[in-house]
Amino acid sequence: MILTMAFRNRQSLIQWMQTPGTIPNCPPGLEYLTQINQLLVCQRFDLLEVLGCFATSKKYEVMNNQGHRIYYAEERSNCFLRYLCGPSRRFTMTIYDNVGRDVITMHRTLRSSCCWRNCYVQKLLSLDEEIVLGKISKKWAGFMRELFTNADKFGIQFPLNLDVKIKALMLGASFLIDYMYFEHWP
């Protein structure tokens, strides 16, 4: 009962970024990305996971530099695979806007850590290797949060005039980085 009330109070405090108008040649839902040059991706922690008794699906808030929520992301995966495969599990990540509309959907296949297969196929290179499209960095979440939870924070920076599809790709890459390098077995 107390946790439910605390969650409802927190939900009422969340400020969403104002919805921009329709922008020509911009995919629906990505209009927000035309107005920003950085994102903060914060993984929400689950009390059951903190207590170590249950591996839950991951949930993230995506905010602008003023702390206004732009998107909400939620993992859909099999509970059995969360235990059996840990961070290598397959999942679908859906990113929603402020009205609950699906904006981006990403699918990750099951990954094996074996070295005899072509397992590590994720590469992102620019043609000339000189142009920096942006930066994704893990942010310090605070001592207690880092010690007791698996909830991470990532900062994403990119040029304001970068194509919104590339900005969305960088957002998706931040989730993949979290699973590949910072997610731990339950």
UniProtKB/TrEMBL annotation:
<keyword id="KW-0564">Palmitate</keyword>
<comment type="function">
    <text>May mediate accelerated ATP-independent bidirectional transbilayer migration of phospholipids upon binding calcium ions that results in a loss of phospholipid asymmetry in the plasma membrane.</text>
</comment>
<dbReference type="GO" id="GO:0017128">
    <property type="term" value="F:phospholipid scramblase activity"/>
</dbReference>
<dbReference type="GO" id="GO:0005886">
    <property type="term" value="C:plasma membrane"/>
</dbReference>
<protein>
    <recommendedName>
        <fullName>Phospholipid scramblase</fullName>
    </recommendedName>
</protein>
<dbReference type="InterPro" id="IPR005552">
    <property type="entry name" value="Scramblase"/>
</dbReference>
<keyword id="KW-0449">Lipoprotein</keyword>
<keyword id="KW-0106">Calcium</keyword>
<comment type="similarity">
    <text>Belongs to the phospholipid scramblase family.</text>
</comment>
<dbReference type="Pfam" id="PF03803">
    <property type="entry name" value="Scramblase"/>
</dbReference>
